[in-house]
C-alpha cells in the first residue's frame, strides 16, 4: 500500500538545487537580507513538495473493489475523488479512492483521509492554528496581510472568519474536560470575580434604521452594545492589610512588593444568545461555569470569595450558584461612587474632592459604612442640594445602602481577602476590549462569542492543549473507521 520506491525523488532534486544556489550566493558574498528572503521562499516550496510526496507515497487508499464495514458492503466508486488541502507550505491536491453505495451519494468511507487524518475543511490543522493565533489578537484584515507576508499566499477574510466560527465550536467541550489544577499548587483562598463589558454589535436587518441614512435622534448611538459577562477564577494566599495600607496604595501609589500573585487564573466571557432554541443569559452561563470550577477546585474548609460590582442580578446569581461564598463589593466601584459624591460639593480635580474621598474611604475600610451613608445624607440637607446634584448624591447613597452587606472591609482585610477586582477589570480589557472594540468593529452574536471563546483559551495559556484535543475530537467524528482502515491497510500490505 505504501509506495516507498522512488518516493521523495523530486524533493531530493529540489533540495540539491537549493544547496547549489546557496553555494553560488555564498561565493558571491550576497547580503544576508537577500539570501534569507530567497531561502525562505525556496524552503516553503520544498516543504510543499515533500508533503505532496508524503501523500503520494501512501497510494490512493484503494483497499479493493468492496469493503465490508459494520455489516454493510461498500463498493469502491469508479472515479477517484480529488480534494484540495492548503497547508503552511501552500496548496496540494490529493487524489484518492472513496467507498460508498452510489456515485451520487455521500462518501461513507475514505481510507486515505482516515490514514492521513485529514481535517474536515480545506485548511490543514497547523495552518488553522497559526491563522487563528493571529486573528484572536488583531483584526481579520490585519491578520490576513501578516499571514500573506509569512506564508506567501493569501487567505480571504471570509475564510478566516469561517475558520474562527468552526474552531470555536470545540471550546465548550474542551473547557468541560479541563482537569482541576493540582491542589498543592493552589492558594489558600479561592476567588471568583464577575464583571461586564459591552461589545459593539451590528444592527440586524429587522431593526430600525438598518438601511438608509436616517438622522438619529438625540442620544441615539450609531450602534448598540451587548454586554459580555466576564468571569475569572483563581486562588491566592491571604494578604492581611490595614485600612491605611489600602488608602496609601490608592492615593499614593505605594504598591506592596509582597503582594501574592494569583494562581491558576482562568477566564471566560459569555454573551446572551440562543442555545438550542432558547435565549440564555450571559450571566447565567458565566455563573454555571464558575460553579463547575469551584466544585472542582475548592478544598474542604477553603474560603470562597466572590468579587462583583454591586449589580443586584450578579448577587442573585451568586446566591443561586455559589451559596456560602463571601460576597465582596469591589472597592474600586465603591470609590467611583465616593468620587461622584465628592463632585456634588467640590469641583472635579480639586484637592478638596480628593480629601473628601480619602477621608470617607478610610472610614469605609474601617467598617464604618453606616456613618458614611448617614454623613452624606446630612451633607445634602446642610448644603441644600437641589436638582441634578441631589439626584446624583441620592444615587450614591442608594448604591452604598444596597451593597452595605458586601462592604465589611475591616473583616475582609483581617482575613487577607482580596477586595479589588483587578483581575476582572484586566480580563474585561484583555479578553474583550482589546480585540472587540477596534476602530469600526461591529459584531454579530455568533462571531463575537466565537472570538471570545478562543481568546479565553489563548489568555488561559491553553492554546496548544486545545488545538491537540480539537484535532483528536475532529478525527474521532470524521473518521470513526480509522482503526478498521488501518487493519485493512496492513492486511493488504502483507
Please give the structural blueprint.
Blueprint: H1 9-28, H2 32-57, E1 66-69, E2 72-76, E3 81-87, E4 90-96, E5 99-100, H3 111-116, H4 125-135, H5 140-151, H6 157-168, H7 171-176, E6 189-201, E7 224-236, H8 243-252, E8 263-271, E9 273-275, E10 278-280, H9 282-297, E11 304-308, H10 312-321, E12 326-329, H11 331-342, H12 351-365, H13 369-382, H14 387-402, H15 409-415, H16 422-436, H17 445-459, H18 463-478, H19 482-493
Provide a concise account of the structure shown.
With 494 residues, the chain is an alpha+beta fold.
Would you mind describing this structure in some detail?
- This protein is α+β, with helices and mostly antiparallel strands and 494 residues long.
- Among the domains are: 57 residues; 168 residues, Nucleotidyltransferase, domain 5; 85 residues.
- Strand 9 and strand 10 form a beta hairpin.
- Helix 1 packs antiparallel against helix 2, helix 11 packs antiparallel against helix 14 and helix 13 runs antiparallel to helix 14.
- The radius of gyration is 30 Å and the shape is elongated.
For this structure, the CATH topology of the domain at 184-204 and 223-329 and 420-459 is Nucleotidyltransferase, domain 5
Helix content, binned percent: 40-55%
Strand order of the largest sheet: 8-7-6-11-12
Mean pLDDT: 91
Amino acid at each position: 500500500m505504501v509506495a516507498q520506491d522512488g518516493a521523495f525523488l523530486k524533493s531530493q532534486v529540489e533540495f540539491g538545487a537549493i544547496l547549489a544556489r546557496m553555494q553560488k550566493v555564498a561565493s558571491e558574498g550576497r547580503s544576508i537580507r537577500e539570501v534569507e528572503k530567497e531561502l525562505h521562499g525556496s524552503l516553503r516550496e520544498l516543504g510543499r513538495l515533500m508533503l505532496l510526496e508524503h501523500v503520494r507515497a501512501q497510494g490512493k487508499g484503494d483497499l479493493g473493489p468492496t469493503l465490508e464495514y459494520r455489516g454493510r458492503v461498500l463498493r469502491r466508486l469508479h472515479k477517484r475523488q480529488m480534494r484540495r488541502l492548503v497547508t503552511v507550505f501552500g496548496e496540494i491536491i490529493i487524489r484518492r479512492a472513496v467507498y460508498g453505495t452510489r456515485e451520487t451519494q455521500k462518501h461513507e468511507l475514505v481510507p486515505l483521509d482516515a490514514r492521513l487524518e485529514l481535517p474536515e475543511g480545506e485548511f490543514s490543522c497547523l495552518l488553522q492554528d497559526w491563522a487563528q493565533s493571529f486573528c484572536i489578537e488583531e483584526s481579520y484584515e490585519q491578520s490576513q496581510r501578516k499571514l500573506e507576508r509569512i506564508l506567501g499566499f493569501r487567505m480571504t477574510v471570509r475564510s478566516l472568519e469561517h475558520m474562527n466560527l468552526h474552531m470555536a465550536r470545540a471550546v465548550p467541550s474542551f473547557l468541560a474536560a479541563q482537569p482541576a489544577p493540582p491542589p498543592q499548587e493552589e492558594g489558600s483562598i479561592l476567588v471568583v470575580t464577575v464583571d461586564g463589558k459591552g461589545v459593539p454589535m451590528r444592527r440586524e436587518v429587522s431593526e430600525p434604521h438598518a438601511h438608509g441614512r436616517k438622522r438619529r435622534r438625540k442620544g441615539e448611538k450609531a450602534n448598540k452594545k451587548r454586554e459580555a459577562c466576564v468571569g475569572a477564577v483563581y486562588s491566592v494566599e491571604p494578604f492581611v492589610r490595614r485600612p491605611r495600607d489600602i488608602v496609601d496604595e490608592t492615593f499614593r501609589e505605594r504598591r506592596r512588593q509582597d503582594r501574592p500573585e494569583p494562581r491558576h487564573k482562568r477566564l471566560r466571557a459569555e454573551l446572551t444568545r440562543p442555545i438550542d432554541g432558547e435565549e440564555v443569559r450571559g450571566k447565567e452561563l458565566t455563573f454555571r461555569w464558575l460553579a463547575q470550577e469551584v466544585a472542582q477546585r475548592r478544598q474542604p474548609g477553603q474560603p470562597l470569595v466572590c468579587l462583583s460590582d454591586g449589580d443586584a442580578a450578579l448577587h442573585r446569581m451568586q446566591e443561586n450558584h455559589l451559596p456560602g461564598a463571601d460576597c465582596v463589593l469591589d472597592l474600586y466601584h465603591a470609590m467611583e461612587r465616593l468620587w461622584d459624591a465628592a463632585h456634588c460639593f467640590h469641583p472635579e480635580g480639586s484637592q478638596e474632592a480628593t480629601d473628601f474621598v480619602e477621608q470617607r474611604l478610610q472610614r469605609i475600610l474601617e467598617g464604618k459604612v453606616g456613618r458614611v451613608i448617614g454623613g452624606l445624607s446630612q451633607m445634602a440637607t446642610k448644603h441644600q442640594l437641589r436638582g441634578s446634584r441631589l439626584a446624583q448624591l441620592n444615587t450614591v447613597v442608594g448604591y452604598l445602602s444596597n451593597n452595605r452587606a458586601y462592604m465589611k472591609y475591616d473583616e475582609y482585610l483581617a482575613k487577607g481577602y482580596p477586595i479589588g477586582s483587578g483581575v476582572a477589570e484586566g480580563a474585561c480589557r484583555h479578553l474583550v476590549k482589546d480585540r472587540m472594540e477596534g476602530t469600526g468593529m461591529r459584531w454579530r452574536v455568533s462571531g463575537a462569542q466565537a472570538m471570545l471563546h478562543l481568546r479565553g483559551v489563548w489568555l488561559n495559556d491553553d492554546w496548544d492543549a486545545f488545538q491537540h484535543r480539537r484535532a483528536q475530537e475532529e478525527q474521532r467524528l470524521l473518521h470513526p473507521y480509522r482503526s478498521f482502515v488501518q487493519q485493512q491497510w496492513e492486511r493488504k500490505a502483507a
